[in-house]
Structures are given as C-alpha cells and as structure tokens.
Amino acid sequence: MPSRIAEPSAADTTATQDLAFITFPPFPKPPPGVTLIPFKDFRARGIQLFEVVGGQNEEDMELDGLGIPTVELRVKHSTDECKSNTRKRKRKKKTAGVDSAPARKVPWYEEWEEGEDLRITKGKFDSNISHVDRLFHAANDFRVNRTWPPVTSGVGQLWDQFRLYVGLLVNPAVYRKPTKDEADDDDDDDCDSPSNTQINGEDTFGLAPSLKDPASSTYSVELDDHDDDEGLQARKSDLEEQREEKLMVFLNDPEKSVTIFLSSYMREQGLIWSERNLINAPHLLSFFLNFVLRNRVLPKASHERGIRSALDIVELAKKELPLTYKIGQALPDVFSDGCKECFGRKGGIEWSFDDHLKANDQPAPVDATITVTDQHGTETEIVLPDTEETALKDAIEDNVDMEIQVTNTRTTALVANANTIAPITTAPPDIWSGDTTDTVAGGWGATGDTGGWGSVGSDTWGAIGDGGTWGPADDNDEWGADSAPLSFAPEVTEPSWLSPPPSLTSLLGPTSFPLTHSTGVVESSTRRIRAIHLPPKDKAKIKGDTAEMVEDELERRFARVVMSPWGREENDIPKPFIRKTSRGAVVMPDGEVEGSGSGKPHNPYEDDIVLVLEPTVLDTLSLGMGLGGLWVQIVREENEAPKKSNGKRGKKSKGPLDELSGNYWYLEELMGIFPSYFMSRENAK
After folding, report:
1. Which of 565, 639, 635 lies closest to 600 in space, CA to CA?
2. Half-sphere exposure of 332 (CA within 13 A, CB side)
3. In 3D, which of 430, 395, 390, 389 has the Cα closest to residue 410?
4. N or C: which end of the chain has fewer CB within 10 A?
5. Which residues contact 672 (CB under 8 A, 6 or more apart)?
6. Neighbours of 199 (CB within 10 A)
7. In contact, 160 and 169? CB cutoff 8 Å
8. Which secondary-structure segment (H or E) carries 560?
9. Cα 321 from Cα 271, distance rounded (Å)
C-alpha cells in the first residue's frame, strides 16, 4: 500500500501559497510553434565538416548536424579542435605560416593555467585524518595526472627541493648493509664509490640535493663496517624527526616557511644562479598553494589565512626573483664603472690584526708572533721583527744568503759577494729597466760590465753589443740599441680585452668633474631601495661656480635612487663596514665620530644615500629590494667646498629632487642582490 503524503499546513505554505503545485502526469503541452521529437523518431547527427554557414567567424565555429554551434569544454584535451571547414582552415594556415612570425613557445605555467581550477583531489578527506596526512595526499594528487615539463626545465627538481624542504618528500633511500662481495668490489675500485644506499627514484625527478642542507643525508648515508642495525635505525629515526619538524613548521606558519624557501634556502642551495629557477620556483609554489586552498586540504581558518599570506609572498617573488638576475647583469652601470676608472678602486682585500685598533692608539709593547704548523703537526712560534729595517734585512739575508747592512728605509744597503760591492735601494725609481748605478751588479736586466744576463759588451748569451749575437744592435734596430735601456715591464696602455675601458667622457663629454670632485666615505653594506627618481624634465641649468654646474649636470642627466639601510643583520647580510680608503667623518656604532671632513658625519646605520644611475637601468629595480655592495661617496674637493650658493636658476629651477642635492654616491662593486621579503633561517628561529 503506497504511503500517503501529508499535505502541508497553512503555516508551512504561507511563503509559497502563490506558487502552483504541479504533479506529473499529466504533462504540460508544448508552447506554440515547438515540436517535440519522440525518442523513437530521434536520429543522431554528427558534426558538419564542409557545410559553411554565413557569418563573421564562420571558420572558427564548429556546427553540429542541425547547424547548431557546439559548446567548448572547460577542460582542454589534445583532440579539442574545430572540425568544421577543416579543408579551408588547413589551406589558410599553410599560406599564413609563410608570412607570419614563428609561433611563440608557450611556457609550462601558461599551459597549466588552462583548466587548473578544475583539478581536485581524489575523493574527500575524512575528518579523522591528520593535517600531515592530508598534506601528503594533496602533494601526491598534485603531482599525478599532470603533464610536467621536460627534465631539462628543472621544474621537477624544484618540486623535489620544495618537498624536501617542507618534509613532504618521503625518504627515497632504501637502507641496506653492503654484502661482503660488494665491499670487496668497492675496495678494488680506484674511483670514488657511491654511498652504501640504494636510491629509489620512483617518486622524484632525479634530485641531487646540496650537502649544505642537513636533509641531504636523506639521500646518501654512509655506513662503515662498524655500524650495526641499532645505529642504522637511530639514524633513520633522526631523519624522520627532522622531516616531521619541517612539516610542523610549514603547518604552523606557511607564510614564513615559503618566505625562507624563496629567499635564503634557494640561496644556500645555489638555485638563484639559474634564471629559469628564479622564474619557475614562484610559479610552481603558486600552483601548489592554490591547489591546497581550492580543495580545502587544511580546513582551519588559521591555515587558510597563512596560505593566503604565503600566496602574497609568492606573487611578490614572481616579480622580484627574476629581477635579481637582471640587476646582476645591469649593475654596476657605465657611470659607476667610469667613476671607478677615474678615481681608482677603493675596495679590495684588507688585512688587519685588530679590527678595533684605532689609528691614534699606540700598539702594545709586545712581540708579534705567528704560529706555524708543519706537516707532522708540530707547532712552531716565530717572533716577527719589530721594525721595517729588521724585516728588510732578514728577508734579504734569508733569500740571497749573504749579510747586508741597512742604513735606513730609503737609502742604500751594502750587498757583499766574492768580487764586488755595489749599493742597492729598497725602492728604486726604475729597478726593472733603468740604467742607473743603483742596480744590482750582474742582476737580472743589469747593464753594467758584470757579464750578467742582458749585459752590454759581454760574450754571454743574450748580450747586447759586439760580443753577443742574440740581440744585435744597429742603426736600423732600435729595440736592441745600446742607447735604449731594456724594458721588461712595458706600460700597458690598453686593456687585455678588446672592449675599451669605461669612461665618463662617453656620458658627460668634456667635463671638469674629475677636477672638482673626489671620493669621500667608502662603505661596504647592504641597502634597501627606498625611492626612485627620474631625471627632472623641468629643471633649468644654473649659472654658478664650476662645482655647482657639474652637480647640476649630474642631476639633469642621471636618475637617482634613494638607498636606506637594510636595518638588520642576516646570514648573508653583514653589518655595515667602513673601508680604510674612506675619507670623511663617520659615526661609529658606539656613537663616536671618527675621521674629519666638512659637512655632517655619515652614519651608515641611519643615513640614506643617493645612488646616481643611468635611467636605462631603472627598469630592473623594484622598491624594497636590497643591494649589497661597495658604496663610494662623491664629494667636492677641499678647495671646492660647498658654500652659500650664488647660482641663479630660472623660474622652473625648483625640481622634485632639490632636497637630495649634494648627496651623490656610485656603486663600485655589487656583491649581493636580495628580494624585499628576504629572511634567513637563523632569524626566523
């Protein structure tokens, strides 16, 4: 007996009392002009191949047998192409391909974009599954059923690196003890044998992690003959604990974990030196994080907020990571190289026994010693000489095996041998090629009557004159003339490569800039891009002294970038350091001012500097990014010290950069490029 359906009460039908209650059958009649085809009379129709229907986009429209346009699927397939008018389409493509430019190669991330929002995980997650297991399943579903780029693209290796970093990569090494035969084979092999592990690369793309990463031991664990099963299990347990710790770090703060991966981790693993890695890494993480977010793998609101914040970092990395490669190609620019060529190098290697020793402090009255360890491990303490004269005397006696007498550091020292006594100087004006009486008798390049190599008037090999045949001198051969001194170290007037040295003349033309300005403070630090100013278009020329006109020319021709201190020390970002070639007053970390000079003392921890650059370089810069390098200040010469300006400008004299006038720096050497979100693992802890 069929069950009786209870009719709704008046209270339940208050909101729907105006709607008609329809039951079937009877079925309603079709509207006028519409004919319904019974199923027994239905005939399936395919797609029209050659039937052309008039219209603007007739060649791009696929029609079925009734002339109705078909619907394009959201998920793309390899067979998705218009099948109507194929003959006409193929002919037009063939002719069009001759005149058109070659097709652009579509990047892998653009191919993934099509239909990516429809990719879901296999089934729904049980509420009892832990967050760690959910993340594992999501990572596996993200990897499978997806067309990955070729191995040469490096995308697969980046995916393995990310899984290894967050702890998602299951240990691919199968640990086993080497057999006795394998151990004997390893002993007989001359080349380096691999570690005693067997790698299972089924779930990886052939990753070869760097030894810098502690997790790299996951891939190669060396076992010696004394390792037992308990030690092996202990190592596996430690690796498992490390993996779980990484997973918890990612789950607790996805933003911080992604920030470290896209900054300091990629730097430690050497991934930043390849431009393709800088482009592929943020795109790959963007697909995975959106996949996790779209499928609600981590349903908690805190997890969702963290992943969305991590996606903000990824979007920033898509812009800034490729720029780090371009900045490395563009800086230092021609202006900075020209200033370095003009004023000379201010950086280089500096040796210091005591970094905190001040210039005015007297050294402690103790003997300087060094400790030398020989090949047998024996340590010997050697007392260094206390004066320059003693050092020179000991150095010469130890090398030429004769006794000398040093009168002072600039005058001559007597050198004794079996036959002659001749003076030498500690710093001769032309010891290599000059024909002077201060040259060592019979020495290399000597021109006396001692019969040494290259001597004049002797019968020795290479002698110059009648007695030698190697370099005869005549009126037509100036190279071997007696009147011309030998020069074995000619002055180099051209660089060793074909490109000419950078010059400021190519930018400024004939200018008095090298005469009116010089270098000031030399600072080695990392600074952040705070503001970028283009050359002002409405800035009129001034009429003043030479120094003012030079600075005005710099402001009108070049862009200026305001660089502020980074603000904190990181693993790869040391604290600011003032070089010994620096000139001018500088504020030290303890607040004391060292050095002297006109103007306000420079504080490398607080003051901004203005970097002068060519405008063409600005396309590679982005606000917030960090540049580590050697910054050199441009200051006026002492006789050109800034006074009250008498320069006159026109009505459009005041520009947007007037408050920065007088603050000019150039970049001698670029030593580091950092994205604005850079974070080291040490600071994150």
Report:
1. 635
2. 23
3. 389
4. N
5. 526, 572, 573, 626, 627, 628, 629
6. 15
7. yes
8. strand 559-565
9. 11
Tokens of 551: 């600075």
Residue-wise pLDDT for 88-138, tens only, equals 444 444 444 445 567 788 999 999 998 898 888 887 778 889 999 999 999
Helix 275-294 / helix 301-330 crossing angle, nearest 10 deg:
170
- Counted residue by residue, the chain has a size of 685
Instruction: Give the span between the Cα atoms of 131 and 168, in whole angstroms.
Output: 12
**Does pTM top 0.90 for this prediction?**
no
User: Which DSSP string corresponds to 138-203?
Assistant: HHHHHHSSS-PPPGGG-HHHHHHHHHHHHT-S---EEE-PPPHHHHHHHHH-SSPPPPSEEE--TT
CA distances from 185 to 98, 194, 319 (A): 61, 12, 52
d(C-alpha 498, C-alpha 501), whole Å: 9
Burial class of residue 635, CB neighbours in 10 A (0-12, 13-18, 19+): buried
Integer angstrom CA distances of residue 643 from 167, 648, 663: 63, 14, 15
DSSP string, 442-458: T-TT--STT--TT-BS-
- If we measure between CA atoms, which residue out of 282, 360, 273 comes closest to residue 315? 282
Please return the burial class of 572, using the count of CB atoms within 10 Å of its CB with bins 0-12, 13-18 and 19+.
middle
CA dist 114 and 75 (Å) reads 7
* In 357-443, beta strands by DSSP E: 369-373, 379-383, 404-406, 412-416, 421-425
Render 3-64 in DSSP notation, one character per residue: PPPPPPPTTTTSTTTTS----SSSPPPPPTT--PPPGGG-----B-SS----STTGGG--BB
CA distance 262 to 285: 9
Q: Could you give the CA distance from residue 561 to residue 569 in angstroms, rounded to a whole number?
A: 22
Question: What pairs with residue 560 in β-bridges?
Answer: 533, 612
CA torsion through residues 613, 615, 620, 625, sign: positive
d(CA 57, CA 65): 18
Compute the C-alpha angle 97/100/103, nearest 5°.
Answer: 80
Q: Which residues contact 26 (CB under 8 A, 6 or more apart)?
A: none
Pairing mode, strands 173-175 and 369-373: unpaired
User: Which amino acid, residue 108?
Assistant: W
CA-CA distance, 475 to 481, in Å (whole number)?
A: 8
What pLDDT, on the 0 to 100 scale, is given for residue 114?
87
Closest CA to 209 of 396, 367, 373, 199: 199
pLDDT digits (tens, 9 = 90+) for 439-493: 334 444 444 444 444 444 444 444 444 444 444 444 444 444 444 343 334 444 5
Encoded amino acid at 424, one letter: I
- C-alpha of 207 from chain center: 22
Q: Are 526 and 628 in contact (CB under 8 A)?
A: yes
